[in-house]
Specification:
Blueprint lengths: L1 H27 L2 H32 L6 H8 L3 H10 L2
Length: 91
């Protein structure tokens, strides 16, 4: 999981830097300013993203996944069970 998170972080960093440099260049007209802004901010953001992903992974590991969809749908309207049956028949 750490390898996947690391690879996901790297792809996020490349995407973020590309967008940040492009936006900074469009706003400033200067490659020096664009590179300064577009490299520093995304680097800090990418490090924060890595730890954010790890924290969410730990939270997801602790909490068992529960599907509350059916209980919400059933409580919404008396017609919902009928509509759900029709929808599931056409899948």
């Amino acid at each position: 999981m750490v390898k996947r998170t690391f690879l996901k972080t790297i792809s996020y960093a490349v995407m973020h830097m590309t967008i940040a440099i492009a936006v900074a260049y469009i706003l400033s007209g200067s490659w020096a300013i664009a590179l300064a802004i577009g490299l520093i901010e995304p680097c800090v953001q990418t490090i924060a993203y890595f730890f954010h992903e790890r924290a969410w992974h730990k939270i997801e590991q602790r909490a068992p996944a529960s599907d509350t969809h059916n209980s919400v749908i059933d409580s919404a309207s008396p017609v919902t069970r009928w509509v759900e049956k029709i929808l599931h028949r056409h899948k």
